[in-house]
Design brief:
Largest sheet: 7 strands, mixed
Distance between the termini: 10 Å
Number of helices: 14
Structural class: alpha/beta
Strand content: 15-25%
CATH topology of the largest domain: FAD/NAD(P)-binding domain
CATH architecture of the largest domain: 3-Layer(bba) Sandwich
Length: 539
């Protein structure tokens, strides 16, 4: 049968791409399919790094552009949640920042959450295998992997000044946030090659020659098909017609932190009472599906500044962007290569905190409401987020139809500790901005007086904070029976079904999540190969 495979991977994000490619290359006799709802190609705008300013703020063929339910601690506002749609997932539209998190994050997964096989040494091996770092190989980095990691081709002087100001404020200069320590200020490395975006699909899928891997794009998965409790395939819709794509060995769900719990629930795996509310027959009662949602809430401290290298909507800047097209196409340099969030740092909110718990991104434009609020002037933003939030939220069904967006409730700042840590991060940022290196770039506050404290600062945060795009945890793995997944990512209560993406994290890592998602795909492929070592299940 043309629609029968050994392994069916649902979702073309970084984890899904890594999983599908590694399975296909491991055994030429295995037939592997990767199914993606969005387009197969990234598109010209996505390939240009600065295209993030076009893709993120609006719904498109490559952005689901979800909203949260009203957030009680953010004045009842609905948050905006961009999510990539297409082969490559959110690596099509993200800020390209290559960060792994802290070693202690993974130590905690294994020690505290019972996730055997997910300690630092285990995941570091997978990070290195996935990476082609242009700086070369060392104890922390790999070369020859499918994901290209590079330094920025045309660093911005305001981003450079922010680093110098951080050093003047007493923070260590850190040339590599993915080495022995994360603490300090420095440049972010990016997922780029030759000055262009290099998403997961380019490295794992387009960059590989795998005749046994079928890439099935523009195809919506409607539900997992079960025989009893065993997953045997998926029902899909493409060009108005429905069909079943069969999986002889395993169905691997890699639809992301919102899509994976949604697909499990519409397929009958989740909190039984909630499924019955939507008329869904229960295959496995798994109360924690869609729970444990964690995300990095972010506050953007914005300064208005008419500096020639900053981004803005004024006529001169638009003309500058047009003139930059030539250098970008010829040599991969210029303003179009910017990932916007060029520099930043990891800091401790208080001296008694053992390791960095706040992340900073210096963005070379005004990131006001994800870029949806436009200003007729230039400026820059410092993005500030607590790294290990205590707040927990949920993903629930709005409908039994997989094409209806789920109900996303991060419950931002429901834990008071998150607000306190965020306010401490703002005060640290004030100190950096007051340093001599930032004096030429002082600018004027876009909101308030720019130096709010106490209740005034809290009010500003509640009025403007939102996600910085790192949701995880809704299909958590763990050693306890209540976890959705066991440590090898098998869905408890079912057979032949795994989840492989950022939704599996028991706790959020300390930083951006694209690189960890690819690592999860790499690590999961090892588990799948091991458990299928005798060959895929007979047809």
């Amino acid at each position: 049968m043309a629609d029968a495979y050994d392994f069916v991977v649902v979702g073309g994000g970084p984890a899904g791409c890594a999983m599908a490619a590694r399975l296909a290359e491991s055994r030429p006799e295995w037939r592997v399919a990767i199914i993606e709802a969005g387009p197969a190609k990234s598109g010209a705008v996505s390939d240009v790094p600065l295209g993030i300013s076009i893709h993120v703020p609006r719904k498109s063929a490559r952005n689901y552009a979800y909203e949260t339910v009203p957030q009680a601690e953010l004045n009842g506002r609905r948050g905006f949640v961009p999510r990539g749609r297409g082969m490559g997932g959110s690596s099509l539209i993200n800020g390209m920042v290559y960060i792994r998190g802290q070693a202690e994050d993974y130590v905690s997964w294994e020690r505290d959450a019972g996730c055997t096989g997910w300690g630092w040494d285990d995941v570091l091996r997978c990070f290195k295998r996935s990476e082609n770092n242009e700086r070369g190989a060392d104890d922390y980095h790999g070369v020859g992997g499918p994901l290209n990691v590079a330094d920025l081709r045309t660093p911005n002087p305001v981003a450079a000044a922010f680093i110098e100001a951080g050093v003047q404020a007493g923070l260590p200069r850190n040339p590599d946030f993915n080495a022995s320590t994360q603490e300090g200020v420095g440049w972010y490395q990016v997922s780029q090659k030759g000055g262009s975006r290099f998403g997961a699909a380019k490295g794992y899928i387009a960059g590989a020659s795998l005749p046994n891997l079928a890439v099935i794009a523009d195809t919506q998965v409607l539900r997992v098909v079960f025989e009893g409790r065993r997953a045997v395939g998926v029902r899909v819709r493409a060009s108005g017609a429905e069909r079943v794509i069969s999986a002889r060995a395993e169905v691997i769900v890699a639809c992301g932190t919102f899509g994976s719990p949604q697909l499990l629930m519409v397929s009958g795996v989740g909190p039984a009472a909630h499924l019955r509310e939507h008329g869904i027959a229960v295959v496995a009662d798994s109360p924690d599906v869609g729970g444990n949602l964690q995300d990095h809430v972010n506050y953007s401290l914005m300064r208005r500044l008419q500096h020639e290298t900053l981004m803005g909507l004024d006529v001169a800047n638009v003309l500058r962007a047009v003139r930059s097209w030539g250098p970008y196409k010829r040599a991969g340099v210029g303003m179009l290569t910017s990932n916007v969030a060029e520099s930043g740092g990891f800091v401790r909110s208080r001296p008694d905190v053992a390791r960095p718990d706040v992340q900073l991104h210096l963005a070379i434009g005004l990131v006001d409401d994800h870029g949806r609020t436009r200003h007729p002037f230039r400026g820059y933003s410092v993005e500030i987020c607590p790294l290990r939030p205590k707040s927990r939220g949920t993903v629930r069904l709005a409908s039994a139809d997989m094409t209806t967006p789920p109900l996303i409730d991060p419950r931002f700042l429901s834990a008071r500790e998150d607000l306190d840590t965020l306010m401490d991060g703002v005060r640290i940022t004030y100190d950096i901005l007051r340093q001599k290196a930032m004096a030429p770039f002082a600018g004027a506050a876009v909101y308030g007086d720019g130096w709010q404290q106490g209740a005034a600062l809290e009010a500003e945060i509640r009025a403007h904070a939102d996600t910085i795009y790192h949701p995880v945890g809704t299909c958590r793995m763990g050693g306890d029976a209540g976890a959705v997944l066991d440590p090898q990512l098998r869905v408890r209560g079912t057979e032949g079904l795994r989840v492989v993406d950022a939704s599996i994290m028991p706790t959020l890592v300390s930083g951006n999540t694209a690189a960890p998602a690819a690592m999860i795909g790499e690590r999961a492929a090892e588990f799948v190969r091991s458990s299928n070592s005798a060959g895929a299940r007979a047809a």
